[in-house]
Amino acid sequence: MITTIDKNTALVLIDLQNMVVKLPVAHPVAGVLANAAKLVAAFREAGLPIVLVNVNPIGSKAFGVRKDRNPPAGGAPAADWLDIVPEIETSDEDIRITKHTWGAFYETALHQELQKRNITQIVLAGIATSVGVEGTARQANEFGYNIAFASDAMSDMFLDAHESSFKNIFPRLGEVGTTEDIIAKLPA
Which one of 1.20.272.10, 3.30.70.1110, 1.10.287.40, 3.40.50.850 gives the CATH number of domain 9-57+84-185? Predict the structure, then answer.
């Protein structure tokens, strides 16, 4: 349950990019993207920052040692594979972060960008729940951010992993609510 949203809150969308949204996930991608788009619109209206995170694992030391990696068949990735999907309205004012591992804080400027804006809380959404979202949430917790999770604006490739994050991890790191719950608590 969302009890409050800080006046200095940023929306952080994880990996809603062309490459990732094509993966098979447990919940319909269209619904995840529609709810993420609602959050973007509400944060813009409230004048709150939006962070668009994409992942580029190529060249990452972490990717090189993964035991489960399966290179995609069919050659090189498409030219637009890192682009945020068109369903998410972007702006030049958005903070853009490219991560190379699961969490969006590791070896990126995310913490510095949030600190410049006096951000005390982040609202997280995106794909995949148990990887990029949870990885970023764990790092955000270590930096002392309050965290809210938009339950209907994320999904995972594995339903049991998604459910485990919501049951076992997210309640220990922050508050969980729907897109509408979060929007209702945004500061005026």
Answer: 3.40.50.850
